[in-house]
Amino acid sequence: MAEGRAPAGSPVILVAGAGRGRVVHELARRYGADYEVQEHPDASSARTAVEHLAARGGRLAIALTALDAVGADEHVLAEIRRAFPDARRALLLDWGDWGDESATARVLALMARAAVETYLVAPRHSPDEAFHRGVTELLRDWARATGADRPGYVLVGDPARPRTHALRARLDRTGAQVRTLAPSDPAAQDLLARAGVRADADRPGAETPPIVATELGQVLVDPDDAALARAAGLRTDLPDRPVELVIVGAGPAGLAAAVYAASEGLDALVLEAASIGGQAGGSSLIRNYLGFARGVPGGDLALNAYRQAWLFGARFALARRATGFARTADGGFRIEVGGAGEEHSGVTARSVVVATGVDYRRLAVPALDPFIGASVFYGASSVEARGQAGRDVLVVGGGNSAGQAALHLARFARSVALVVRGEHLAESMSQYLIAQLEAAGVGVIGDSRVVDVGADADGTLATVVLEHRDGSRDTVTAQALFITIGARPRTDWLGDAVLRDRWGSILTGPQIAEQDASAWPGDREPDPLETSLPGCFAVGDVRRGSLKRVAAAVGEGSAVVSAVHRHLGPHTGG
């Protein structure tokens, strides 16, 4: 075993495999002051070390396992995943291993079973910055997952109450580190006192409002979205002048439109009612996005896109919801805006891109209502995963969002099963996810739907009643329910201004004439991404026929800017 200079109790970087002295030397030289670097010649000794580390309550940040070690004992990877679900697991390859067919087959098989998350190429020289870039990315992922990289926010609130969950979800989707404390926790008393709030125990029948302490020490009592945004240094105000382009929504499609519009000199404003990144921002890992071999957390992708757009000059107004829409006398647009308590209630623009995305559909099961936000969750956010340790969890839905949520939950929960209306998953889920779910032991309950739930004596969710296609019913144990059953476009705020289908999705391009030949008022053909109102465009999941993939949304958001330029004319931008 080779150890660095880190003090006792430091997180561990573990290397398993014979002849890895150069790897250990590079790791110890670069990270040895903060991490204990351990070298183990084979999987058996690495497995024993993992068991001992878990027994003494230690922390494992990264496990780098050589192919020869895995071949001897693949169980070490399962033990790491069980004992340290947040640890990052990577194969250690030598340069050129990808040209060996047998090595490639083993790597792909391990990835398909989710036994490892990625691979790193062993350093060939010192320093090898390509190697260290991979290591630091893994360390950053681990630190973010465990809250170890910075103090971050502190949230004081009862985790069983929906409002606490809502605040935690909102903070998590901004990329912030969040530590949640119960009001009774001694560590919370100073924050409660600073906020002038008394705990429930001192006020029978009362509820302690949640408290948020920011990274800079500001203490907020039950803050709304606008207060959280401003505390993070983000803008919520609207411009007092017309702009060339308003982009409504800051999901992948809206962010892509913002990047390309601002980079080409357009005066662009982005309105976002909730969190930057939309539903994709809450995804624990997007595995099939181009250019990210080991996947990218949705929050990272969204935050980087926001920074990119901001650096090009795009302006953002967060916690601002579009509430109305109309054409102005001069051919422009007026968007009515709510939220944030700002003086201005709207903004005018020469063109508009609608990228408001979708909301998850609700189950028509009234019995779920008391549990929403505490043990019943709509969406696939990774916020709640760590809280499911030792629990039985059901995920309702058969699409990629449901699969990604189930895979992430399986790292912590005692059991996870997907409840789907169809017979199996292949109709709506990517094959790589199906393989990983099988490897992770996620069950599938087909031909079924949720019709009722039951609670323990203390009022917490305990069981879920499923009805099968033949009409029979089963009661299964579950302490949490995650629902991702399709979506409804966020288009109510548009009124009758643009043509939509009966589900609320916006029609664009040739779809307009197919539904109503008289709906297009222009003397030219509409652009493929243009709505029935010239100069108003729709991109991403809000548009009829969209592919419901992050890459597709980014592509539409990027492409629409050319159409915006054509509408505005040759003397725009710059």
TrEMBL record:
It catalyses: [thioredoxin]-dithiol + NADP(+) = [thioredoxin]-disulfide + NADPH + H(+). The keyword Oxidoreductase applies. The keyword Cytoplasm does not apply. Gene3D superfamilies: FAD/NAD(P)-binding domain (3.50.50.60). Keywords: Flavoprotein, Oxidoreductase. InterPro entries: FAD/NAD-bd_sf, FAD/NAD-binding_dom, Ferredoxin-NADP_redctase_2. Residues 244-557 form the FAD/NAD(P)-binding domain. SUPFAM superfamilies: FAD/NAD(P)-binding domain. This is FAD-dependent oxidoreductase. It comes from Agromyces larvae. The lineage of its organism: Bacteria, Bacillati, Actinomycetota, Actinomycetes, Micrococcales.
